[in-house]
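call fold(seq) -> tokens
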Amino acid sequence: MKKVREIINKIIFVIGAVLLIAITLTVTWQVVSRYIFNKPSIFTDELARFLLMWIGMLGTTYAFGSKSHLSMDYLHTLLKPSIVKLIRIILPILGIIFVASVMVGGGTLLTINTMQQLSPVLFIPMGYVYLILPITGVINILYLISYVVEECKERGEN
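ret:
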């Protein structure tokens, strides 16, 4: 499971890097067209917003998958190790329920419901913009499942 998580994280990293380059070029073109050519580009603002949404969601998923997200583990120092192990199984299960209902379920409904709505400038279906929610939701669920499996394996070894 750890290898799969590392592969997914590498893919997310590459996609995020490409999107970061794209948003940098987009914003640079916006500045150049506005201040040098004195003719502002129309599409750059909207494209930069959409790219920022995708970069943000992929970035949080990457941090989640590499376990570099914010966590509060001070409470773990106060509890018995057996309770901490139980918490490390229960919290990801609760996370799976939350992510499945909000990001995957809600994100899928949002994506489907906005496929007919076109963005004002780029004229792309807004569903493509919101598609990042169920995509990252599924990836986060895979990560959470791998955390539960790893914790259960460690529990069985002890």
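The mean pLDDT is 91.
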